[in-house]
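Figure 2 data, in text form.
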Amino acid sequence: MNCIHCKEEINPLRLKALPGAKTCVNCSTTGPKKGVVATFGEKDHTWNDVVFLEDDQYEKYLKQQKKVKFDKIEEVEDPTKKKFDLNNIADEEE
């Protein structure tokens, strides 16, 4: 089968994967896709799925993710706890 745009033969492997393809890879208007893992549902009824995005959608997704900041729990040193040097623990036990 030939491409409807350039009239070149469509790769047989493309036709095997996409039996209804009317264009070759070079003439195709579909660009590359990127996948993002997403979690859906609530509580015990959650599932993960892959969402496929066009390049412009993926860029918007990345910008949105950069805006989301999670609270950072800072470690506070407890003055009542004694620090141990694990390399010299035998010396400190005496």
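Caption note: Helices lie at 12-17, 55-67, 89-93.
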